[in-house]
Amino acid sequence: MCEALNFLQHTEIVIEPRKRWPTGLFPEGSSLIPETMRNLEGRSLCYYGDAGWGKMVREGKYERGEFASELVEAAAELIRKRWRPEPRPEWVTAIPSRRHPLLVYDLASKLASFLAVPFVEALVRTAAAPEQKTMANSSMQAHNVAGTLAALEQLPTGAVILIDDIIDSGWTLTLAGWLLRQRGVAAIHPFTLARATARKT
Question: Which CATH number among 3.40.50.720, 3.20.20.80, 3.10.129.10, 3.40.50.2020 corresponds to the domain 2-195?
Fold first, then answer.
């Protein structure tokens, strides 16, 4: 049991970048996301709800109201020693939330401190939307988040780690990264503590 738990706590999950927008999201534009506007390959620390880190993510989000220091340290260790994203991140930002306004910002701020780079609040929520997990499929999730985020005008242009707590379809990170690339950010490295259970798209 201890060996299995140790294995789970030292795995990492690749976040593959989205390459196309779903049909109808941008009716007047191409469905192809240009390579210069895509996120780079990212990482998740664990699967949501799994033994070890996954259970701690669930408890932190819905019971404690903050993520345990062990999770933050494990995330920093993954980023610095195992993932080592290139180009090297020069700052950290996070997906803003109206339901949990401090949760992910606190995580991102602590991770930035571990990585010795600044945390910048680069994104804002412009509208509320239902939780992604309530959407029936990937296309609906993309439409659900479209128009609910905006990026500030003046931002650092170096590579950034874009943080969220849980990834489902990946559209929130994709759209956020696209907005940041529009502001001249050189590279987007997505990172989440957990990946939700896979759904059919």
Answer: 3.40.50.2020
